[in-house]
Amino acid sequence: MAVLVLDKRKKPLMPCSEKRARLLLERGRAVVHRMRPFTIRLKDRTVEESVLQPIQIKIDPGSKTTGVTVIREDDTDPEEQQVLILMEIEHRGQQISENLTQRRAFRRRRRNQLRHRAPRFDNRTRPQGRLAPSLQHRVDTTMAWVNRWCRLAPVTGITMEQVRFDMQAMENPEISGVAYQQGTLQGYEVREYLLEKWQRCCAYCGARNVPLEIDHIHPKSRGGSDRVSNLTLACHDCNQAKGNQPVEVFMADNPKRLQRIKAQAQAKAPLKDAAAVNSTRWALFQQLQTTDLPVITSSGGRTQYNRQRLGIPKTHALDAACVGPVTAVTHWNVPTLTVRATGRGSYQRTRLNRFGFPRGYLMRQKQVKGFQTGDLVQANVPTGKKAGTYQGRVAIRATGSFNIQTREGVVQGISHRHCRLLQRADGYGYTFQPKPALEDATRAA
Q: Using CA atoms, how far apart are residues 254 and 206, in angstroms rounded to an integer?
């Protein structure tokens, strides 16, 4: 991977190779400015004394993971591009949604526990075009990294894949004509449709002539949707016994009926990821335009065509490298920097058990012995069972005995005296993925 370079006034210069960065550090001409992504700062050069080449940021937006690639354009042919850095951003939209649901439940419990409060209906409107927090997080995280790359490299343009998923065609590829404008429930109500679909009997035990309740095949608390293909009918006893168990666990002792449920339900893959990309694509495009850099949009079909024509494996980061007008991509077989959004802490001071009762209280202070959770540290343990050198993300404890998340796993019980700070926590966790296998490229071609 290329190493990012800043001048002595912290202005971005052209990235250099790892070998070149190592020589600059050994000769004392540069110092380490940042560990992730690795950046050095020169002591004896400014932007005015350097020659810069056009660099682009290419983005492949996704619901769970967004691919970002930093490329250098060829001086003679801008469509011949060299990959400098591959990066994948792992969003935490689902975690944000679950945290808000939990907070809403806590507030409801407190209101009911203390006293009844009459409902309010004033000032409840939301501005038009507002995104849910879990969706806005995807836009904000991507924009945060675009702005960071603009500070660390001389970026001259942005290319973004702006894809729109046709969810009606994804659900039924053969749909056409008037049926395209009509949904599954044309002429039905949901309950009447389910009664006719499941022959007015319990899907789990087959009971008839009993009150039937609507149940989610894949529980909503585990990410299931309200789509009609995920709904079934169950008697009260089966509905209570199933709870929020996956249907595979609940019907493990009756595989024949489980198979019939899956076949009759025609359970399809949830479309929430496609819906998330559709909802955020224009918001992200408008935010990118605020950078005052030229923004080029491209289609998903063109990305797939470029990737197959060039024989490049399919990953989120390499998909980003194939976005837009491309004739050749070089130096793409490099490790990928994976950036996982972790947040900067939690306002919640109490941990709960599975019944909702407090099981422990967190510290009020964020730092212990000068460290805070999320810092990148290096621990040199001289003696003992855990003797060795460890580098990774630290989780602090009030006792001063920390846990370090390394590439091999979690190392527990490392004293703060052995830890050395490498980089302050910035709300992200960093890991490296190995180079993509060349046989994957052959298979993708």
A: 12
DSSP string, 225-241: ---GGGEEEEEHHHHHH
Distances (CA, A) of 272 to 94, 163, 268: 11, 15, 12
* Residue from 57, 52, 117 nearest 81 by CA: 57
CA nearest 317: which of 411, 223, 429, 432? 432
Distance of CA 260 to the CA centre of its chain: 34
Structure-token pair, residue 193: 């449709």
Residue 174 — pLDDT band, cuts 50, 70, 90? low
Where on the phi/psi map is residue 225: left (φ > 0), alpha (ψ -120 to 50), or beta? Answer: beta
Buried/exposed 23-52: b ≥16 CB within 10 Å, e otherwise: ebeeeeebeeebebbbbbbbeebeeeeeee
Per-residue model confidence as pLDDT tens digits over 217-246: 988 888 788 878 888 999 999 999 999 898
| Strand partners of residue 415 | 401
Who contacts 212 (Cβ-Cβ below 8 Å, separation ≥6)? 195, 200, 201, 202, 233, 234, 235
> Pairing relation of β-strands 295-298 and 39-42?
unpaired
Contact indicator for 18, 5 with CB cutoff of 8 Å: no
Alpha carbon separation from 114 to 100, 108, 110, 188, 427 (Å, rounded): 21, 10, 6, 43, 36
Question: Is the per-residue pLDDT at 440 higher than 60?
Answer: no
Predicted confidence (pLDDT) at residue 156 exceeds the cutoff of 70: yes
State the distance between the two ends of the chain, measured CA to CA, in whole angstroms: 24
What digits encode the pLDDT tens for the residues 360-379?
Answer: 888 888 899 999 999 999 99
Q: Which residues make beta-bridge pairs with 410?
A: 405
* Six-digit token string for 153: 């490299």
Both tokens assigned to 116:
């009844």
Provide Rg for the chain, Cα atoms.
27
